[in-house]
Amino acid sequence: LSLTSPDGLTLLVGRNSRQNDEVTFRQARADDWWFHARGVPGAHVIVRALGQSLPPDTIRRAAELAAFYSRSRGEVDVAVDYTRRRRVRRIRGAAPGLVAYAGEQTVRVTPRGPDDA
């Protein structure tokens, strides 16, 4: 799934383990940003940032999508971690889409899907 943020940046959303692996490790560049709902199964959301820092509206929108496509979809307040793609690593021997990451920041959002603009 590919969407556009309020600031015109491209958002890539993996909605299952295979798509997560694809967007995170094949489509994303090292300087892109990676988002994922904290502590629950869910989507990897990539923001194509072209090496730039992210505008607040884009951070919020990417986090809302990560929360929406996670097991926390029904919650009102979801913690979403984000970090540079280069800080995300596959876990050796784990299923596709399972990752470890470092250097994250966390934002709290209400889940909103692609049609809830």
Main sheet strand line-up: 1-2-4-3-5-8
Oligomer: single chain
Structural class: alpha+beta
Helix content: 10-25%
Number of helices: 2
**Counted beta strands:** 8
Q: Name the helix and strand elements from N-terminus to C-terminus, one letter apiece.
A: EEHEEHEEEE
Low-pLDDT stretches are none
- Span of the ends, CA to CA: 15 Å
Provide the residue-averaged pLDDT. 95
Label the overall shape. Answer: globular
The value of Rg in angstroms is 13 Å
- Sheet with the most strands, sense and barrel status: 6 strands, antiparallel
Strand content: 25-35%
3D architecture notes:
By secondary structure, the chain is of the alpha+beta class. Helix content is about 20%, strand content about 30%. A 6-stranded antiparallel β-sheet has the order 1-2-4-3-5-8.
Please tag this protein with its features:
6-stranded antiparallel sheet, alpha+beta, about 120 residues, two-stranded antiparallel sheet, 8 strands
Summarize, please.
The chain contains 2 helices and 8 strands. It has 117 residues and is an alpha+beta fold.
Task: Explain the layout of strands and helices.
Elements: E1 2-4, E2 10-14, H1 17-27, E3 33-37, E4 44-48, H2 56-68, E5 78-84, E6 88-90, E7 99-101, E8 105-109
Antiparallel strand pairs: 1-2, 2-4, 3-4, 3-5, 5-8, 6-7
